[in-house]
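Structural prep section.
Before we set up the soaks we want a predicted structure of the protein with protoporphyrin IX containing FE in place, mainly to decide which crystallisation condition to try first. Input record follows.
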Amino acid sequence: MNENNQIPDIDFGPLSYLIGSWQGDKGLDVSPEPDGQEESPYHETLDYTVVGDVTNAESQKLAVIRYQQIVRRKSDNEVFHDETGYWMWDAASSTVMHSLTIPRAVCVLAGGLWVADGKEKNGISISVSAKVDDPDWGIIQSPFMRDHAKTIEFRHDIAVEKDKLSYSETMVLEIYGKTFEHTDMNELTKCQ
Ligand code: HEM
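Run finished without errors. Recording the C-alpha cells verbatim:
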C-alpha cells in the first residue's frame, strides 16, 4: 500500500489475487506423534499485505507481498501454528517465490513457474515447492531440527476463486525414525 492506502501500480501477477485478509474454519492438520499421528481441526487468519517492488543486481524486478498466518486449534482455541514470510513474483521469468519462517527454527524458500491460462477472470492457482538439498529452492533448519525433526520437502498449492482461497501443503519430515507426511489444508473467505 502507498501512503494513500492504495495498491501501487506494480504487476503482482498471480499474487494480486492473494492481497487482503482471509479467515477460514475448515482447517485440518495432520502432524507427527511418536506412536502415529495427530489430526487437529483448526481455524485461522491469513493476511497478505503489499510491500512493493525490489530490484536485485539492477536487473531482476520482484513484486512483493508479505503475509502472516495465525492458526488456532478448534478444540481449545490455542495458537498452534504461527508463520510469516513473503511471496514474490518475477514477471520476467514467470516465477513465483515463497519464503517462510516458522518458530521451530525452520525456513523455506520455495519456487514455481506460473503461466496465465486465460481463465484468470475466475481465479488462479499457484504451486511452489522446495527440497532440502535442492540448489534452487531449499530448506534451512537448526542443527536440532536437522537431527531430530528434519524437513526434507515442502509442497504448497494455493487457489483463489472470487472471495474463496483454498490451500494444501505437505511437509515431508524425518522424525521418530520414520518419514512422515505432515499436511495442512483449509478453505478461507476474504473478509477485507
Ligand atoms: C497450518 C500450518 C501448520 C500447522 C497447523 C502445523 C502444526 C503442527 C503440529 C500440531 C505439530 C506437532 C507438534 C506439536 O504438537 O507442536 C507440528 C510439527 C511440525 N511441523 Fe508443523 N504445522 C504447520 C505447518 C508447518 C510448516 C509450514 C512447516 C515447515 C515448513 C512445519 C514443520 C513442522 C515440523 C518440522 C514439525 C515437527 C516438530 C515436532 O513434531 O516436534 N509445519 N506442526
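Observations: Residues 143-148 form the longest helix (6 residues).
Flagged for discussion at group meeting.
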